[in-house]
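Running log. JK asked me to keep both predictions on one page so they can be read side by side. First protein, sequence followed by its tokens:
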Amino acid sequence: MITATIKARLGFDNSQSVQTNEITNTLKRKNLYWISQISGWGLFVIVNLLIISSFETIPLNKIILWIILALFGILFSHLYRLYIKKNNWTSLPLKKIIPRVLIGGFIVAIIIYLPVFGSGYLLGVERDEKHLTAAIIASTLNVTSVMIVWSLIYFAIHYFENSKKAEIETLIFEAAVKDFELKTLKAQLNPHFMFNAMNSIRALIEEDPQKAKDAITKLSNLMRYTLRIERTETVPLADELKTIQDYLDLEKIRFEERLQYKIQSTPGADRVEIPPMMVQTLVENGIKHGISKLTQGGNVVINADADLNFLNIEIRNSGKFDEEALRNSHGFGVSNTKHRLSLLYGETASLTLMNENNNKVLAKLKIPIGGSK
């Protein structure tokens, strides 16, 4: 389901556009391939003729024979390419490709040389009968070396193309995953939280109209923040903490004196850019799985500071951390946060959740300062 959604967002479902691009790219590759084939074999013939001409005058029949060699080289190297594609050699590991290239190059060289050798007799090209065997071996090795170089170039091009393609596909997929998870997180937050917040505000309207107005302002601030996260990848920690304060104030309407909170952050930490909703998710998780389950309620304490390399955030809430219960819950706040950290920062960021004591849960978030991986 997620993969299908991501592909749809990236436009993979637009089959007509994809097919048009594929046809265009295929035509370009074919043109480039034949230009390379003709120019490569042509250069091979020209270089050999230039070398030979420095020692002797080359008769016309020998020039024709070299041209025939180039034509057979183009033909049989193309058939060799089709064989490679049919047997999917380009996906094999290097240790399996090397012997195939050496043996295949030698076999194709013999196949190329046999009709060239026959053409030489038909054209009346003079040969030294005494050194005929040595000449055949030398010519075969010469063409073999050309085919091995041809194979190396062919496989090198495919290797770099596949590496580049895989890298691009990975980047596109990861970007789509980040976007999908962020929007999914927002979709999860709004129905779950807003239903309770609206009911709480509704109860306040007659009891305390001013408090109800303040609550509506805080709720609008939170909604504005969730809309903002669609347009930006990071936000200053100060903005995230202000949103968390509004969130906790709204939750206090529901929990009343059962919920107390304290937020502390240094000026240096406030300026650090973080993924939006990351700390908010952990705070919500602490209330959902901790304080809401306690008859007497509890408190949430957030501390943030920054050193030269990392932003360190500690979130403490009343309750007890039960890893199995959290894993079996329908929410995905902690696992989603860990996945987002991994996508954005690799192994340099971390999130740990533990019982600090019998009635206190500690979430420690460590984010590198200076951007994503």
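And the second, directly underneath as requested:
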Amino acid sequence: MLVDTHCHINFDSYDPDRADVLGRAAAAGVEIIIHPAVDLPTTDAILKLAEQYPYIYAAVGIHPNSTVDFADTMIDEIETFAKHPKVVAIGEIGLDYHWRESPKETQWKAFEAQLGLAKQLKLPVIIHNREASDDVMTILDQWVQDLPPALQQRPGVMHSFSAPPAIAERALAAGFYLGFTGPITYKNADQLRHIAANVPLDRMLVETDGPFLTPVPYRGKRNEPAYIPLIVERLASIKQVSTEVLGTATTENALRLFNITP
């Protein structure tokens, strides 16, 4: 059994063949998919997918690029969504300084408010970080200082990790898992592979971030959960273990982080 810990299966690009995509995932051994939200308007659709498919679980939250209209009342809405029995995390949340679709101050406010909710609800977080590593870690280092016992060993995951080695060290020291996506297979990803080589097996996760970040040899095409074995294979090579060992470890990590009993 494998777990895709991050896939946006509700996105329009899956509309023509969503059932087939999920069928291919199961055939490839991907038996659990974590589906994070990016905003409030589409969260209902995500929860309906989680209700329809027993192996889909949800995270709820507001992506930094969706925070331009953030208001404190939105935290109440997220909390209501989070009461759904298939919700296993708050996310994806964080900071994005690449697209700058929302002012930094607004992103910070939304991020810190959602971290506060996660702590209150004792749910781990799925962290989005793009070109904002220092600020993200400054906030997270403070957040983990007084976590409830239920979160102290599983605060969350740095989704689709792509930051420098020093940030990996800080994230691991803070208790976070690191999620690896298709770029681990790319020719120019030597630094990322070096980071992966130094991440303990019990702190690694695999994810597609579908429909984005498709691994080699399908790069340039739509990503899907059936490609998780390609990421597992590359990481196993980097860690110099079998694909079975890598797959088992990342699955156990995902079940532990998201408190899922298959």
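Observation for JK regarding the second prediction: Residues 184 and 193 are 6 Å apart (CA to CA).
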